[in-house]
Q: What sequence folds into this?
């Protein structure tokens, strides 16, 4: 059984998706966030499936996740990145 403290920690450290793009753009944003001390997680389902011998998704749908506790710090960086990198 989870204690209240464990439950509180899990709620505070949920991963949230903040950006989806190509592998290149996701890695550029990842680098910018990490420079500011924000831990990121990149999920590339297409690459994982291809490596396992399956073909699902598209190669242009790479997701970038951060801890929800970092959202306030990350938002200005993400918004500026999107503004600068609009097609």
A:
């Amino acid at each position: 059984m989870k204690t209240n403290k464990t439950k509180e920690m899990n709620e505070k450290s949920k991963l949230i998706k903040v950006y989806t793009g190509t592998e290149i753009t996701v890695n550029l944003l990842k680098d910018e966030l990490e420079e500011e001390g924000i831990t990121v997680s990149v999920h590339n389902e297409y690459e994982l499936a291809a490596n396992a011998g399956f073909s699902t998704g598209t190669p242009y749908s790479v997701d970038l996740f951060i801890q929800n506790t970092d959202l306030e710090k990350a938002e200005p960086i993400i918004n500026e990145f999107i503004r600068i990198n609009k097609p």
User: Anything to note?
Assistant: The chain has one domain: 14-84. Residues 14-84 form a domain with the Alpha-Beta Plaits fold (CATH 3.30.70.1530). Residues 46 and 56 are 6 Å apart (CA to CA).
